[in-house]
Amino acid sequence: MSSTSTGYRIAVIPGDGIGTEVIPAALTVLKALADRFGFSLHFDHFDWSCRRYLETGRMMPGNGLDMISGHDAILLGAVGWPGVPDHVSLWGLLIPIRRGFRQYVNLRPIKVMEGLPGPLRGSEGVDFVVVRENVEGEYSEIGGRLNRGFPDEMAVQEAVFTRPGVTRIVDYAFKLAATRRGRLTSATKSNGIVHTMPFWDEIVRERAAEHPGVDWWQEHIDALAAKLVLTPGAYDVIVGSNLFGDILSDLAAAIAGGIGIAPSANINPERTFPSMFEPVHGSAPDIAGRGIANPAGALWSASLMLDHLGQADAARALLTGIERTLSDRTVRTPDLGGTATTQEMTEAVLAALPA
Ligand code: ATP
Ligand code: MG
């Protein structure tokens, strides 16, 4: 890597739709934080997107991964566009990056910020992280369709859980819990899924012995989903498989005030490859080009990136700026019931950064 101790090279992929609106907002705030906290950021832009796919037949160049493997982090907006099937953006960009760069941890922090719309408005102290397994599990290509066109037609889909794969995600979650409030919940369904889930549970139990300071328990995914709505304050870190983590993190984003706010990080904990930071939302074609996208999810993702780069003070300052802007209620985008533009909300966050 070509970074010095206080300089970072960031691969910036704005992508499609509102990705190209919220990423510039994030870069503006990142530059201000770098100046204030005394480090430097170098941004390399890549036009990898469905737009590019429609022009060239590829989301990214064949050697795309090589082009960004030496960067310190990747900041992604969103990829997806009407007329381009989801599997193109998924298999043409997101999955190659996640798998190629061994980003096996998907982090989705959830915080109920004061004054936000959402079903749990006003609930105090909701602050948890969903740790989703990001490269194996239920989303596998193994399986197929049999007896097509016959009355006994069937589809078979295999889930793949490996001992190293489960161990490393569970260890990551235990370690994360140890740095927070020391509580870990494992999402399971071993009463109905009788091979993979008992295997998952067994590994969680084994790894728990290595992390005696963490209070852990497991809950079946159905009950956990209900309890996340009823008593979200009870959770600190939740670890789940690829599918369970996917569902829980969207549920949790809705609890916390909507998809426009939710951040995510795809982490390669060994740091042998860059990690990738992206808002949870997609390209939002219905509002793209109007300058009214909520930049909070991209900004919060940028905060996760700063934290990962070792700039914890800058990361915390950015999160404070976002929280203050949201709870102040005067400058907010239409998805939160306001009339502000992306730029106005970005300026409000800049103004709300702690001195
Ligand atoms: P994609 O196929 O890229 O996922 P999508 O059509 O699923 O796109 P999403 O981006 O997932 O759209 O958004 C779902 C809904 O939430 C849309 O109505 C969109 O306008 C809204 N939305 C998403 N992100 C934001 C944001 N940052 N600000 C405001 N509204 C948003
Ligand atoms: Mg979507």
TrEMBL record:
Gene3D superfamilies: Isopropylmalate Dehydrogenase. SMART domains: Iso_dh (SM01329). Pfam families: Iso_dh. GO terms for molecular function: D-malate dehydrogenase (decarboxylating) (NAD+) activity; lyase activity; magnesium ion binding; NAD binding. It catalyses: (R)-malate + NAD(+) = pyruvate + CO2 + NADH. Belongs to the isocitrate and isopropylmalate dehydrogenases family. It comes from Thermocatellispora tengchongensis. Residues 9-349 form the Isopropylmalate dehydrogenase-like domain. Its EC number is 1.1.1.83. InterPro entries: ICDH/IPMDH, IsoCit/isopropylmalate_DH_CS, IsoPropMal-DH-like_dom, TTC_DH. This is D-malate dehydrogenase (decarboxylating). It comes from the Bacteria. Its cofactor is Mn(2+); Mg(2+). Keywords: Lyase, Manganese, Metal-binding, NAD, Oxidoreductase.
